[in-house]
Design a protein that fits this description.
Layout (H helix, E strand, L loop, with lengths): L4 H6 L7 E4 L3 E5 L7 E7 L14 H18 L5 E4 L15 E5 L5
Antiparallel strand pairs: 1-2, 2-3, 3-5, 4-5
This protein binds adenosine monophosphate and zinc ion.
Length: 109
């Protein structure tokens, strides 16, 4: 069994409120939302963070960005939103599996 909680969600070992899934990407609601829309978009394959992507990952990253854009079109008022990824503990990364936060539905300064 993986120790990575997001790999465990991908494997179906932990529950998640899934909003999108295909063979390589999963999107689910953040358990502790910081905005009315707070969705995490992850590759199903374990990649630790944006800091460890390789050139082979470029097509996958492009598809993740496109998927974020599609999810946001459906869920974020005015198609306005924020996308964040944290890299490393000192910058707020608490789960060591690459994820993009899609935040929307409120004003950000
Ligand atoms: P980060 O701090 O950038 O690593 O973001 C990790 C995010 O994962 C946080 O916003 C957490 O609320 C969220 N999170 C942690 N565990 C779960 C879970 N089991 N289901 C959904 N979101 C989670
Ligand atoms: Zn993982």
């Amino acid at each position: 069994m993986s120790e990575c909680i997001f790999c465990r969600i991908v494997a179906g070992e932990l529950p998640a409120d899934v909003v999108y899934s295909d063979d390589e990407i999963l999107a689910f609601k953040d358990i502790n939302p910081a905005a009315p829309v707070h969705i995490l978009i992850i590759p199903k394959r374990h990649i630790s963070s944006l800091g460890s992507v390789k050139s082979d990952d470029i097509p996958l990253l492009g598809r993740i960005m496109h998927r974020i854009s599609q999810i946001a079109k459906d869920r974020c008022p005015l198609n306005e939103y924020r996308v964040i990824t944290n890299i490393g503990k000192s910058c707020g990364q608490t789960v060591d599996h690459l994820h993009f936060h899609l935040l929307g539905g409120r004003k950000f300064d």
